[in-house]
Amino acid sequence: MVILGVDPGLANTGWGVVDFVGQKFRPVCFGVINTEPKSNLEDRIASIADSLGDVVDKYHPQHVSIEDIFFAKNEVSAIGVAKVIGAVSYRMHQQGVPVSMFTPLQIKIAITGYGRAEKKQVQEMCRILLGLDKIPRPDHAADALAAAVCWGNTSSTQGRLGILR
To answer: What residues act catalytically?
Structure first.
């Protein structure tokens, strides 16, 4: 199953495509969508949604996993991220791809087994699970890959328990 992971952000949105077959993950492609702070908000959000739409057209994921907002220290940036999440969710709906959202805590648990894992621990475990030589860069791409792996691990567990959503 091909999964698209998304680490949403107004300035930088990470994305990662992972193939999940037989309890094994294989990285397909990953990257970051950057927007210019000088551009207007609507153009930035549309650019992110359109770019991820292009990723869907190219890689045909069966599911999208988005890192959700759990706790925001900066309300202004949280609002921007929430707008990106909404636009991406809508675009994925238009393209017929189901979306799941996971908090950072859920992603950390699914990747490392520990909800208070440090960012480097999550990245290293993601590197190991994906069989990569080094941690993916930039960080937003690594976070997006972690979101995709989270969906694979979570759906696999739910399937074994008979509660797959």
So the answer is: 7, 67, 140
